[in-house]
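@channel sequence for tomorrow's demo:
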Amino acid sequence: MSIDVAYAELGLRPGASEAEVRAAFRRLAARWHPDRNPSPEAVAWMQRINRAYDAIREAAFNDDFAAADADAASGADAASPARTLRRRLRLSIEEAAFGCTKTLRGRLTRSCAACGGYGRDRIDPRCGDCDGSGVIAGTAWFGWLSTKWTCPACKGHGTVARACAACDGSGETASAWRRTLRIPAGVRHADVLVAAGPPDADGRGELELEVEIEIAPHRLFEAGDDGSLRCEMPVDGFAWIANAWIEVPTLAGLQQMRLQRGRRVYRLRGQGLPLHRGATARGDFLVTVIPTFPDTLSKRQQSLLEQLAKSANGADADTPPSLRTWRKEVESWTRSRAARAPHG
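structure tokens (generated this afternoon):
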């Protein structure tokens, strides 16, 4: 609201004095305050009066009311600068991988329209005890001497401050808001999504809603920025030796994977996260297996292992080349050592 419009709302000429502004405000407020005027238009009128009064007050300099300069006047009825609501949204890896819909809720605090943010009636009601005079007159007990004293109800002010009924004296009102947000597949930790928020305090438009994504730690998976997904899992050492099939947890559920002796890291292509936000192509899923063996063996297990160890005596064609070479080197070293030993 421009200054000229504000003066016109109060029925004043531009540049009216502070006293004239206050008098006009009191006169109009006394007429349109909802507590005094049951008309349906009373609230709207009171809001207009408050905005006009605030516009003139904000243009004051050193407590002297002055007309606004040309720049301020040219911005009449311009929308206030956009405000931003910021929220942090925690997602699971699965929600980030496939996308989801989330509902955000909050409460938006606004300046009370009824009292203009003051927390009390802008026009304090006249004190009923002293009829606004601030003093109470009486007659002394012996009847012929009159006396006056400060009104204890208003402490001599003549008016009694009354808390605004609309905001209960806080100067602010809070309204609940809710927005449904579609999270695209492939969002990353610390990504920021921007969406339309709730209406601003003046009701002239929507606030901007900034949502920062936080990916919660997962009990099985670890996400990489490149779209890869990693998992470390213990496997039975004997199953690893036997090249057995195992079940691996993936984003799509359990999947069969065959172990290979001597191999620790396995790559499941296209089983990771989307390569970027909204992408259909996915990164790889890297599985690191940790072979584990029991601390104690049953008699049968011990017997089977001993048989297996005896079968690998180095002569078998299936014995690994490195083991055969090692045993030959040890045998050669033993013979040469015996040949060098002194004979008694």
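heads up for whoever presents: Residues 61-81 have pLDDT under 50 and may be disordered.
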